[in-house]
Amino acid sequence: MPRLPLLAFLLTGPAVAADPTPVADFLKRPLFPADEVTLEVRDHVRPKIPRLHPPGSDQCPVKTAADWEKESERLRQEVLTKIVFRGEAARWRDAKTRVEWLDTIPMDGYRIKKVRYEILPDFWIPALLYEPDKLEGKLPVSLAVNGHDGNGKAADYKQIRCINMAKRGMIVLNVEWLGMGQLRGAGYRHGVMNQLDLCGSGGLAPFFLSMSRGLDLLLAHPNADPKRVAVSGLSGGGWQTITITSLDPRVTLSNPVAGYSSFLTRIDHFKDLGDSEQTPTDLATIVDYTHLTAMRAPRATLLTYNAKDNCCFESGYALEPLRAGAEPYFKLFGREKALRTHINESPGDHNFGKDNRQALYRMIGDFFYPQDSKYNADEIPCDKEVKSKEALDAALPTGTLDMNALAKELSKSLPRDADWPMDAKLAGPWQAAKRQALADVLRIKPGLAVDARFSPRLEPKHDEKDGVKATFWQLKLGERWTVPVVAFTKGDPKGTTLVISDKGRATAAAEAERLLATGQRVLVADPFYFGEGHPKSHGYLWCLMLATVGDRALGLQANEVLSVARWAAAKEGPVAVVADGPRSSVIALSAAALEEKAIGRVDLIAPLGSLKEVIEQNRVFDQSPELFCFGLLERFDVKHLAALVAPRPVVVRSPRDRVRSEFGALAGWYQLLGSTHDPLK
Q1: Is the pTM of this model over 0.85?
Q2: Are 175 and 143 in contact (CB under 8 A)?
Q3: Same domain, yes or no, for 302 and 422?
Q4: Per-residue pLDDT tens for 165-181?
Q5: What is the pLDDT of residue 5?
Q6: Which of 225, 249, 237, 252 is nearest to 176 (CA)?
Q7: 575 is a domain residue
């Protein structure tokens, strides 16, 4: 090292960070155990998951096969109408769509026909039809679906499965899955489906339609046998398999492979927690996956799991609850042997390899070819017939839609009937009605009982430095939730402000210090999913679990903020809320909009101008779960939430034109309510 730089280093030493301010130091102190929030959300969800009780038990009215057929149909229709095809998606169910055949690849004893089909007008799915060279009479058909595999329909284990079925005389449709293979664009990512949820339409619908329209295509084949219809798939393909085969009675044989487990299993085995499509909003208000499995009765069903699955759904814990739940319902029909299981021991990882495929071929032989003495379930070697992804691409039209494009189209006319009246006499009734509508969208009764406790993690419960006094609280809200709060005072406070931040309370020191300097008592809190309120494991997947049992992350967060404000207001009078960031701003506005007393003012730092920005920027669920609250944009945009807060002040700190334009429209509303307040001044 040259002498001069070395000398300089010895004289000055390494750079030393400045000591944190007292406020910054106090905000960084942990207030409860790292896994507290994870355990709370798990224990909140658990009792809400529907149970499948054995037929004939005190908790189950089903006694006979006819009873279960009737109940299965009721559940099927409820899931289809209330989950899959809700909102605008109801119109998609009967939309007129097209099938277009492309080129054909001749093979050994069969051919591969490239095809594309619409699940909605201009929303295309590429697929491959494996068709035997000899087409005589009615032949079994099979829909081959795949999971989270970037190779999509070209995955070698999927091609081998399709080839083997075609060589056995079956007609097989190998379909691409949204987000995989040819459909790996940003608008197809599975977390984008929640943009449709935000618009009040079923985000699950495109996934379901890609399968049901595929079955339509298969069964339209002149040689298709409607009594022999199979679906099989691995992982996400296993999820697709149980979903379509439980909800579409046309499917007579189902083979989900390592694709799902009960919601009850998932909350104890976190690696099973599923993505957006696997944990759709409100599904668990109607059924669990145990119900879907039992709804297969009496049709042939092979549940395949892997003994050492390195992804999810290990056989040791995932399989038995499903088998045990469904078996009594197959028994009602005298069809116990139609429900079968297979556990792969070698390699035993997450696979649809040869052993698992041969279990499927045996199932097909037993149920589709029971009288064929020549049928052989051994896999037919065909490695040399596996083709590259490029060779199997089926061209899509320019401008084909994706889920983001669908959401953009839906959002154009939203929100509906949200604009405030221009007659002062109608203002009060409008706010009252919209306040209740907001509570309904958020799925809450505003306000949770607060049990204020000092944090047991910290001694002392109070601390003071440089004139700043801090108190460390755990606020127990209702029967379940804990919100960590640090309360600051400096001198004699003149009012109270609650601060929340997108980046968590540890980053809010500068804002807290600014407020202390103005004479405020400052509370800095971490609501659910922020800062110390963030689950330490499998974060956003817990928000999906909340949604599937009928709750909303935004509803919980807004209720927590409102409850903390109520607790503070009981001692100090109405509080102000400062929300730093686009997500916190929606939470704060929602909390203040729900009632008129506890929160007297809302300050928004860098808020969204519109919820439509979530769609325009093509955000996905895991980036900001609360902003995808089902139906929120259908009823409200950000400025409409602010209109429910008025005439209490809403102050906006943002230079963005979009924000200033949207909030600027509120000035006339404040005047109508008798206030001269302007949110932008």
Answers
A1: yes
A2: yes
A3: no
A4: 999 999 999 999 999 99
A5: 43
A6: 237
A7: yes
